[in-house]
UniProtKB/TrEMBL annotation:
Pfam families for this protein: Glyco_hydro_1
Matches recorded under PANTHER family: GLYCOSYL HYDROLASE (PTHR10353), LP05116P (PTHR10353:SF36)
Keywords: Glycosidase, Hydrolase
InterPro entries in the cross-refs: GH (IPR017853), GH_1_N_CS (IPR033132), Glyco_hydro_1 (IPR001360)
Family: Belongs to the glycosyl hydrolase 1 family.
Name of this protein: Lactase-phlorizin hydrolase
Magnesium in keyword set: no
Keyword Protease assigned: no
GO biological process, one term: carbohydrate metabolic process
Organism: Danaus plexippus plexippus
Molecular-function annotations in GO: beta-glucosidase activity
Length: 380
């Protein structure tokens, strides 16, 4: 362990050494994140109702890579104090977690509030505060109550929660949709035989109401894509749902390393480019990096590839802050724990801490990246 600590310190020195102007700015915060369905388990405990993910994994297990589910996951519903202790051991400034609305509102509405559900989150928040860790609460992380899905409200909710295109009405000075997007969608709609654009137009009153209604810009970054104009090719909807509307082909560069999955290509420079683009578009808005992380598929606690990923991406954050003058205020590592990674099941491991999903006790063990991240948090 002694030699490992020296090595970790060397990595830290390299991160903040020559070319990176010493340290993160005063007040910069470091945290880590999880999400309710991915870690809590206890899917049918007390009066909790089913979420859409409970229904999905129980009725279509073949869609999940390892046919697993989140019924137990990390068992964080019962082992939440261990998670708090891990957050404290890492020295986190904040811990981001999400609320499971089926646990709080079993009917999907406020006519019934679960005392057990409220108590669970209240205890978690109190324990974090007692240790000087700020709770950062994600209001919704994909586990919609099945009751609301059955009522047909899910599509509207999904629209309200989509990002990307919908940043412009809030953060831009002018408000409304980006003019180029409005024009392209209108042209495409006309070609498709619509009498008017499929993109609803903002009224002056709506622009005024929406514009500027933010506290910070929450940014997730894992990977990058290249973009070019289509040259007669059929434009598919993946990985950018709006690509057909703007006739753009999305791809990657062959030299980018791939992180053991079909979608995560490592390109740290893209992080800085994105942050700097946000500054150029929206001015000195506070940028809160809400997720950034790397997956592995093995069981090795010596996860050098994850250390390299976080190191290289943090270097780009420093460059964006110090060279581009971006107002980045916080960084969140995804994830504090290995967890249920949606359609990948438990095959994709993002955790600074390993979780043994074959052990009923769901034992947590720190990876080398946990020590690396702890060093960064301590020294800043």
């Amino acid at each position: 362990m002694r030699s490992n600590n020296v090595y970790i310190q060397y990595i830290y020195s390299a991160l903040l050494g020559v070319g990176f102007c010493r340290k993160f700015p005063p007040g910069f915060k470091f945290g880590a994140a999880t999400a309710a369905y991915q870690v809590e388990g206890a899917w049918n405990v007390s009066d909790k109702s089913a979420s859409i993910w409970d229904t999905f994994v129980h009725t279509r297990p073949e869609i999940i890579a390892d046919r697993s589910n989140g019924d137990v996951a990390c068992d964080s519903y019962n082992q939440w104090m261990k998670d708090v202790e891990i957050a404290s051991e890492l020295g986190l400034d904040f811990y981001r977690f999400s609320l499971s609305w089926p646990r709080i509102l079993p009917n999907g509405f406020a006519n019934k509030i679960s005392e057990d559900g409220v108590k669970f989150y209240s205890n978690l928040i109190d324990a974090l505060l007692e240790r000087g860790i700020e709770p950062v609460v994600t209001i919704y992380h994909w586990d919609l109550p099945q009751n609301l899905q059955d009522l047909g409200e899910a599509a509207e909710l999904a629209l309200q929660l989509m990002g990307g295109l919908y940043s412009h009405p809030i953060f831009s000075k002018k408000g409304g949709w980006p003019e180029q997007i409005e024009r392209l969608v209108a042209e495409k709609s006309k070609q498709e035989g619509f009498s008017k654009s499929r993109l609803p137009e903002f009224t002056k009153e709506e622009k005024k109401i929406v514009r500027g209604t933010y506290d910070f810009f929450g940014l997730n970054y894992y990977t990058s894509r290249t973009a070019r104009r289509a040259r007669g090719e059929v434009v598919g909807p993946w990985p950018l749902s709006g690509a057909p509307d703007i006739d753009v082909i999305i791809s990657v560069r062959p030299e980018w390393p791939q992180a053991g999955t079909s979608w995560l290509y490592v390109y740290p420079e893209g992080f800085r480019k994105l942050i700097s683009w946000l500054k150029k578009q929206y001015g000195n808005v506070e940028i809160f990096i809400t997720e950034n992380g790397f997956l592995t598929s093995g069981e090795d606690l010596e996860d050098q590839a994850r250390i390299d990923y976080h190191k290289e991406h943090l270097e780009q954050v420093l460059l964006a802050i110090q060279e581009d003058k971006a107002n980045v205020v916080a960084y969140t590592a995804w994830s504090m724990l290995d967890n249920f990674e949606w359609s990948d099941g438990y095959r994709s491991k993002f955790g600074l801490y390993e979780v043994d999903f074959n052990d009923p006790a769901r034992v947590r063990r720190p990876r080398a990246s946990a020590q690396f991240y702890k060093e960064i948090v301590q020294a800043k």
